[in-house]
Amino acid sequence: MPTEVNIFCGKIPHLIIFLRNKQALRLFSSSSTDSSTIANLVAKQHWSKLKTHLQNTNPKALLHQLLTSEADSELTLRYLTWSQKEFKLSHSLELTFRTLHSLACAKKYSKIRSFLDNFVKNEKNYSVSSIFHAISVGGDSFCANSIIVDMLVLAYVKNLKTHLGYEAFRRAGDYGFKLSVISCNPLLSALVKELEISKMEVVYKEMIKRRIGPSLISFNVVINGLCKAGKLNKASDVIEDMKVWGVSPNVITYNTLIDGYCKMGKIGKMYKADATLKEMVANGICPNEVTFNILIDGFCKDGNVSAAMKVFAEMQSQGLKPNVVTYNSLINGLCCDGKFGEATVLWDQMIGLGLKPNVITYNSLINGFCKNKMVVEASDSFNDMPKQGIAHNVTTYNILIDGYCKAGRIEDAFAVRITMMGRGICPNVSTYNCLIAGLCRKGDVEAAWNLMDEMVGKDLRADVVTYNILIDSLCSKGESRKAMRLLDEMSRKGLKPSHVTYNSLMDGYCNEGNLRAALNVRTRMEKGGKQANVVTYNVLIKGFCRKGRLEDANKLLNEMLEKGLVPNRMTYEIVREEMIEKGFIPDIEGHLFNV
DNA sequence: CTAGGGTTAG
Q: Is Repeat given among the entry's keywords (predicted)?
């Protein structure tokens, strides 16, 4: 008995409080007038009065009381939220979700939504599994629980906790709760934004399995995700899935697919893009300005600005008006090619149409100047921006910094960094990457490492590109083994090595004459889910040629073509210098080398 | 909650 304990310990005041509490509780639970008084105080939000009433009561017991009584669920929630703040106590998950359950039964969904929104923001300590346990024991209506879980997933996703949203989605399946597209579509979309494509595929497959009828938007998001991952075949298969579900593709579906083909690094990609366009028209879907913009940008990035100009003309003949995006793609394409005269014509044309160049238009122009070693012109355009009422953004500064670095003017590049900070623009990872690359090119790896340390202090984390720069720098100095250690370090930090990472390492080993090590890197790359690309083949072909293994180089060349990869200028140069000049005629279709 | 344009690494 507590009474005895208290007497033994001589803690008389505690004993008194204990008895008063007990008495108050008993009074409260036996008297209905008291219950309605409390409810009334909660309803009117008379918190200070309620606090006086509660002096002798256990706040947790009151919540329990409200839940078991006929109290209005909204009042219970109001009390729950207030008492959490007031007494700094966290009610058990079970009571919390019982409250939400009663709200769901009363169809007060917006209350649940806002509660869960705060809940996932603040309650960092609860695991998804403990929440699911609380939900399943806290309420008996399967339907109400499903709605709560649906809103929980949505709350996680909206608060940028996609991984938790994904976990909740999976657990919902284990518990058999039925989710809806209201939470699944934002989840799919968030997974695509974070490039978590394999997780996205899991969600998509589960949606079909659990009969959460995917909507047009679900399909479009999934197609976009698969395109971003380069899985174009799977993306076309989704179109077939749509037919099964009786959902018709719309202009966005086709545009997404066309863009996917445009950005794919394979032979005949623009042909496939064009074929998809024809298929779209055959299915009665009319191309819009976005369709044309995608094709124009695709041709520009393919190094075929004249084809882009033809599409541009076609777009206008179909009565579609070019917009800023159209002009930006074309101006960017022309500037990268150094065709500033033609770019200027388009620039004036867009202004004549009443379209205003924006920060991206300027960035394209400045980038073109920088890439063509015209730093003075770049700087002039940069200075023109504020006069035209266009603010520089972090990308503008990064382009200029990179331009100065590549022109060998590192000091000027660092000066630009000072300027941007003075104007309240924070350097980001790319800013540091440009500078680090500049220092590496100069051979000052010491300073590059110091900059990397500085990033940590500014709450910036080195990314894949940072590591790629350092790895490549080490490899080109013949320190491939050191570079391999960086590969391990980036994996430890959860960064996924890219094609560039592996290709630099292979190049490093090839230049050291260590083909075996280079091939081991390729194996590791494939285990990491990356297939050899054009650069991989170029590196390896060159490596084999240098060792005089022309037959093996030839095999690689054929393998690359069989995979539909497009040989680039580098491929031709390697083959010409290393194979043809040594009297070896590559056993591949000759027309490919007529460039 | 769905599609298009600009920077850094091979």
A: yes
